């Protein structure tokens, strides 16, 4: 049974007849035609599908559509419209922090949320924000360099 669910995705209003219990991951990819979220494990264990829901990172494979009604959902595509998100994107590019790139969209979301809440996080806070993300190609050092770059740029502004 479908119902009209209204939410904002990367700055664009969405109002669609959706199964309220279907997962947001599939709605974003299939109904909204955005490939900015990745299917990884489907169980919330890898972080590839992480989005921001009203600024809070969450794994979209675990979020039912009804949970985003009247909320703002941001994927990596929406980060360019946010000053901190744009800085994080630029830092990851500058440090070449993606090899295969599969995990990076989700990591970008968690890092952006962290730096918006705390522009000078501790190593422990960074590790905690990345705890639910798996990177299988091993760009961890570059990811941490990119985060350090973003933190240093934020501290200068």
Task: Characterize the structure shown.
By secondary structure, this protein is of the alpha+beta class. The protein has helices at residues 24-31, 83-94, 104-117, 123-129, 140-156; strands spanning 3-9, 12-18, 50-53, 56-59, 72-74. The chain folds into 2 domains: 3-77, Ubiquitin-like (UB roll) (Roll), CATH 3.10.20; 78-156, [2Fe-2S]-binding domain (DNA polymerase, domain 1). A 5-stranded mixed beta sheet has the order 2-1-5-3-4, sandwiched between helices. β1 (3-9) and β2 (12-18) form a beta hairpin. α2 (83-94) packs across α3. It is globular, with a radius of gyration of 15 Å.
Give the terminus-to-terminus CA distance: 50 Å
Radius of gyration: 15 Å
Order of strands, widest sheet? 2-1-5-3-4
| Secondary structural class | alpha+beta
**CATH homology superfamily of the largest domain:** [2Fe-2S]-binding domain
Label the overall shape: globular
**Number of helices in the DSSP assignment:** 5
Strand content: 15-25%
CATH class of the largest domain: Mainly Alpha
- Tell me the domain tally: 2
Q: Describe the oligomeric state of these chains in a short phrase.
A: single chain
In CATH, the topology of the largest domain is named DNA polymerase, domain 1
Task: Report the helical percentage.
Answer: 25-40%
pLDDT < 50 stretches: none
Keywords:
157 residues, alpha+beta, Ubiquitin-like (UB roll), 5 strands
Summarize this, please?
With 157 residues, the protein is of the alpha+beta class.
SSE order and pairing:
Layout: E1 3-9, E2 12-18, H1 24-31, E3 50-53, E4 56-59, E5 72-74, H2 83-94, H3 104-117, H4 123-129, H5 140-156
Parallel strand pairs: 1-5
Antiparallel strand pairs: 1-2, 3-4, 3-5
């Amino acid at each position: 049974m479908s119902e009209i669910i209204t939410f904002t995705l990367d700055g664009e209003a969405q109002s669609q007849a959706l199964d309220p219990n279907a997962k947001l991951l599939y709605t974003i990819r299939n109904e909204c035609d955005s490939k900015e979220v990745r299917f990884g494990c489907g169980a919330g264990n890898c972080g590839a599908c992480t989005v921001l829901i009203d600024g809070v990172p969450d794994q979209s494979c675990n979020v039912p559509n009804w949970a985003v009604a009247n909320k703002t959902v941001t994927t990596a595509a929406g980060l360019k419209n946010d000053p901190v998100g744009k800085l994080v994107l630029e830092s990851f590019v500058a440090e070449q922090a993606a090899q295969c790139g599969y995990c990076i969209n989700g990591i970008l979301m968690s890092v952006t949320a962290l730096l918006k809440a705390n522009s000078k996080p501790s190593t422990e806070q960074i590790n905690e924000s990345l705890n639910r993300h798996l990177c299988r190609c091993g760009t961890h050092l570059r990811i941490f360099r990119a985060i350090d770059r973003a933190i240093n740029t934020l501290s200068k502004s």
